[in-house]
């Protein structure tokens, strides 16, 4: 798959800073390349052999190429532990639980979908299967 997805944590309709300590903890075991502050991006390799580039800023993680398999497990853990959501340009916002809907921007609330925070569930939703 070669679309883009964004991991954001919303509060009161606005993006909120992500807990970078958790981002480091979750991505840490998979990092192949990263600078100290992650601002130059992070290259990870999951144990199934796929590499994924993650662009990082204080309020958003962007993944522009997400292969099948374990990369979605890493994504699910990031979203769940950060209390975040996933935004894709051509799909509804993915929520980890219904209570998160109230924090989204108004225009994203109605179509947002709660998806179980497993790699398989997110991959299935993203791929449309």
How would you characterize the overall build of this protein?
With 129 residues, this protein is α+β, with helices and mostly antiparallel strands. The protein has one domain: TATA-Binding Protein (2-Layer Sandwich), CATH 3.30.310. It is built from 4 helices and 9 strands; from the N terminus they run ββαββββαββαβα. It has helices at 20-27, 70-82, 106-109, 119-127, and strands at 5-11, 14-16, 31-34, 42-45, 51-57, 60-63, 85-87, 94-95, 113-114. The strands form 2 sheets. Strands 1, 2, 3, 4, 5, 6 and 7 form a 7-stranded antiparallel beta sheet that branches. A two-stranded parallel ribbon has the order 8-9. A hairpin with a 5-residue loop joins strand 4 and strand 5. Helix 1 (20-27) packs antiparallel against helix 2 and helix 2 (70-82) packs across helix 4 (119-127).
Write the layout of secondary structure elements.
Elements: E1 5-11, E2 14-16, H1 20-27, E3 31-34, E4 42-45, E5 51-57, E6 60-63, H2 70-82, E7 85-87, E8 94-95, H3 106-109, E9 113-114, H4 119-127
Parallel strand pairs: 8-9
Antiparallel strand pairs: 1-2, 1-6, 1-7, 3-4, 4-5, 5-6
Helix pairs in contact: 1-2, 2-4
């Amino acid at each position: 798959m070669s679309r883009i997805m964004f991991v954001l944590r919303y509060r009161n309709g606005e993006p909120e800073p992500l807990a970078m300590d958790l981002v480091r903890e979750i991505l840490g075991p998979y990092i192949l390349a990263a600078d100290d502050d992650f601002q130059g991006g992070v290259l990870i390799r999951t144990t199934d052999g796929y590499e994924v580039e993650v662009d990082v800023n204080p309020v958003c993680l962007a993944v522009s190429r997400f292969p099948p398999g374990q990369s979605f497990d890493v994504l699910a853990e990031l979203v769940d532990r950060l209390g975040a959501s996933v935004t894709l340009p051509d799909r509804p916002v993915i929520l980890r639980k219904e209570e998160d809907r109230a924090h989204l921007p108004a225009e994203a609330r109605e179509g947002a979908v709660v998806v179980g925070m497993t790699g398989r569930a997110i991959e299935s939703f993203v791929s449309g299967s």
